[in-house]
């Protein structure tokens, strides 16, 4: 759909406009949030699907209420962007 209707006006794979945030290494939701939430949710075995839902909600609230969390994410983002620039946009996980 996007190729035929939007032509060169959208950012996607194979397009002339590169979209760096597609990289999970530079997206805080991917490099931090999901892994941290998973650690919280799966800390102990679950009873049922409702327990899973409750833990996800509680885990999100725990992350939201952690006062220094955004400073940690900001510092991690700074390191990742610096490494990405240093490697000219190539792979940089080995530098982290």
From TrEMBL:
Domain of life, per lineage: Eukaryota
The opening ranks of the lineage are:
Eukaryota, Metazoa, Ecdysozoa, Arthropoda, Hexapoda
Alphabetized GO MF terms: nucleic acid binding
Protein name, per record:
Transposable element Tc3 transposase
The leader peptide range reads: none
Q: Organism, per UniProt? A: Camponotus floridanus
